[in-house]
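Run log, item B.
One chain of 474 residues. Sequence copied directly from the ordering sheet:
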Amino acid sequence: MLQTECIGEQLSFQGLEQRRVTADFSAGAVTSDGGGLLLREVAEGSRIVRSFAECFEDYRDQEAIEHSVAELVAQRVYGLALGYEDVNDHDELRRDPLLATLVGKADPSGRSRRRESDRGNPLAGKSTINRLELADPEMAAGHRYHRIVCHTEAVDRFFVDVFMNAHQTAPATIVLDVDATDDPLHGGQEGRFFHGYYGCYCYLPLYIFAGDHLLLARLRPSNIDASAGALEELCRIVAQIRDRWPHVRIIVRGDSGFARDEIMTWCEGNGVHYVFGLAKNSRLCAAIERQLAKSQRRYHQTKKASRRYRDFRYQTRESWDRSRRVVGKAEYLPKGANPRFVVTSLSKAEYTAQALYEDLYCARGDMENRIKEQQLDLFADRTSTSWLRSNQLRLYFSSVAYVLLSELRRVGLHGTELARAQCSTIRNKLLKIGALVTVTVRRVWVRFASAYPYKAAFAEILANVRRAYYPLRA
């Protein structure tokens, strides 16, 4: 973060032999986020941030404003991507000419601001950013302060469009991972309920991913079933995907919370395959009793985990209207029996029982890593406003920051040692670079720290990004 105002007090530290070690805050235009220029290259090439900004409607008097919606949205997204989770951080960040460059301010020095008190501060402060988040769509047109509206339907389409735009041609098969998780709450937020499984007051957001690509982040109250609303979201997403890719094969994957008859029946009627976990019960366990006994004997002989699989047809007594293929895993571990089940529409010819469970179903665990990235590294849990609507908008901002970093990973880091790096690693190694920023009439000079240890990787990643988006200029 930039520090431009001098603090006169000198700070003293432990000496170095005969030398005193002192410090102050007089370096001027120095930023710790020099690597953010990589994010700007990705954002400009992919149009991710601009497309997200187009999902907002601005009712403000355009003659009276200095910060456009596109600039405000970009400032918030870049701030999250660079590690600044709180709106309050922007009262200091507003001075940063590097962040102003990322946002696209024509004057990143801020010297041309209308008010004398604002000069030197090219970006918006916390109050303006706060107004961006708190608008009520039904009142925005006539509200005195909160006059910028986010259209959620447009944002929902935006995430799917970004996913499809990342492919030059339609893939043969895509897997849609669906999952719910907890978002703990510590105040009196709208939609706050106690959840027995998680043992806290929380929201219960619904996520849908396709590989690393985030397609949905929907904030929900926690007094509902994990699958609530999932069918409607799948209908919308599948329709949007097939509108552009009519022949793509789609597989929906999720844990036992989504093995609901209405979801599976819809998939079967719309040419969508599925593989879901299935909660164990006495009938299912009885179906793999022989395999489990063999696994137990094998474990006692070898003292190593042993597992076998059984493929069979199964129908619940009341909740399912038809029988379906179920694969049971009869596993015995040092802690004892560990029977597991999945239900699927995929045939035995496509996936054997073992391949279905180990290669296809278990791969959904990677989605949980993506959710953790988005929640922990991009601050998706900062849902502290009073209203569900504004907390959903905060989740959108966090999601777009994740999408931007994920796009940098996909395009820039491919083929490098950081190709599978998590968002926090990308931020720490590539974005958090100390740099001196000098703004002149014709140029923004960014001089990185000479001791930066990843110079070669940084140059390679920039070259990858430019080849991907600007092949004629690379």
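Observations after the first pass:
- The mean pLDDT is 93.
- The CA atoms of residues 309 and 425 lie 39 Å apart.
Flagged for discussion on Thursday.
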